[in-house]
Design a protein that fits this description.
single chain, about 170 residues, mainly alpha, 7 helices, about 0% strand
Length: about 170
Amino acid sequence: MRKINFRVYNLIFASIIFGLFITADTKDIYAFSPDKPLSNAGLEDRALELHKGLRCLVCQGQSIADSNSELARDLRLLVRERIADGDTDDEINQFMTDRYGDFILMNPPVKATTYILWFGPAIALLVGGLAIYYLFRRSKSKGNSIIKETTDQLSDEEKRKLGQILGDKSD
């Protein structure tokens, strides 16, 4: 009778288990789990639209609909509660901006307190473009004076030879 080597079987079993853990689809573990939806489908659609328009204050680049943070989850629940209480979309957005400021809106309104947010990038681009233009013009004018000074220092013979090389037929 042949002797069974349990050590080899244990190694094979451990390798299979390890392989299963490595190749397991972990997206289900970390996937977004929807909160308890509202019973009315129309109200739930409203809630989902409002979620897309509110910024996660933790992630800052995501809406609360896309974020997995605890704060985003709490805000989603708060929006659903307000909808269930009968608030309109404008009332919910106003409540959120009163509580968290205009930053919570993914598309904040244009008003005096948000001018820098709306027009700051355009102003920065304009100032940068003007600075580059000014520096370019300044260096170009300095470059021309250097060429003029250099050509003024040439002798008549050197100027003639330079003219021949450059194809100047003025001589």
